[in-house]
Specification:
Number of strands: 11
Structural class: alpha+beta
CATH architecture of the largest domain: 2-Layer Sandwich
Mean pLDDT: 78
Radius of gyration: 26 Å
Strand content: 15-25%
Order of helices and strands: HEEEHEHHHEEEEEEEHH
Largest sheet: 4 strands, antiparallel
Shape: elongated
Number of domains: 3
CATH topology of the largest domain: Nucleotidyltransferase, domain 5
Strand order of the largest sheet: 5-8-9-10
């Protein structure tokens, strides 16, 4: 896909994809709910396009793509031998430029080269962007301070995931954290060391829920656990919301 962007010197706003397992983790045929692979999400974000999956069990969605593959196999490859892979690629490049792009297309009635010249301005320029590069795909456990550790820094995660394992994708200056296939946090990658990168909303919801429990009279519930000092920094991060630390109280029950 990246090779196509480079060849056409631009990126489309949307890319229609097959439901290959390497790209699509789940696609409900009824609700059309789609969950893309984390690597594809990172790739799409990096290049700035919206991925869209073909409708399951509906061949017409990508029928033209399949016919294009058959055209290349029969017209450009069948009956030919090549001394090397480089010779094969050179042949395909010449065939595309001199034959495929110059023929009258069966659907549009216009030569592909002519059609592309009219539509090229709709592509977003590459603007010298470097190739996608190497993606880091990691697994981390959410610590008691609502964060995961990465390269000596910590990045906040919604508090309900404390103790859970999450997928961490590091790419192009972003730290994308996913749980159960869904993005739960997206941070700019910190270039320093031993820093806390915090989305205040992750902690604000944490404290709001504690207040709700308190107001409901659940005084014996352990909403915040551990040493009080572990949560002192929460007061500094969200000064407008007080930190409530609950100690379990034996035989104390909510009042009716």
């Amino acid at each position: 896909m990246e090779g196509a962007f480079l060849r056409f010197s631009g990126v489309p706003a949307e890319v229609l994809l097959d439901n290959a397992k390497a790209l699509v983790e789940h696609h409900d045929a009824v609700t059309r709910e789609v969950r893309f692979n984390a690597r594809l999400h990172a790739f799409a974000r990096y290049w700035g396009f919206t991925p869209r999956a073909c409708a399951p069990y509906r061949a017409r969605t990508k029928g033209k793509d399949e016919r294009g593959v058959a055209y290349v196999k029969k017209n450009a490859i069948a009956g030919r031998r090549f001394e090397s892979w480089a010779a094969f690629e050179a042949h395909l490049d010449r065939w595309t430029r001199e034959i495929a792009d110059q023929r009258e297309h069966g659907t549009t009635g216009v030569a592909p080269a002519e059609r592309f010249a009219a539509e090229a301005d709709a592509l977003r320029p590459l603007a010298g962007r470097a190739p996608f590069g190497r993606l880091r795909d990691l697994v981390r456990k959410v610590q008691a301070d609502c964060a995961i550790d990465l390269d000596t820094n910590s990045y906040s995660v919604p508090w309900r995931l404390i103790g859970e394992s999450v997928q961490v994708v590091v790419l192009a200056g972003r730290v994308i954290i996913r749980h159960a296939g869904r993005v739960v946090a997206d941070h700019s990658q910190c270039q320093g060391r031993r820093q806390r990168i915090v989305d205040r909303a992750h902690l604000r919801r944490f404290l709001n829920d504690a207040l709700i429990f308190h107001q409901a009279g659940l005084l014996g519930a352990t909403v915040l656990t551990g040493n009080v000092r572990d949560f002192d920094y929460l007061n500094q991060l969200v000064p407008s919301v007080p930190v409530i630390f609950y100690r379990p109280v034996t035989d104390l029950r909510p009042q009716g």
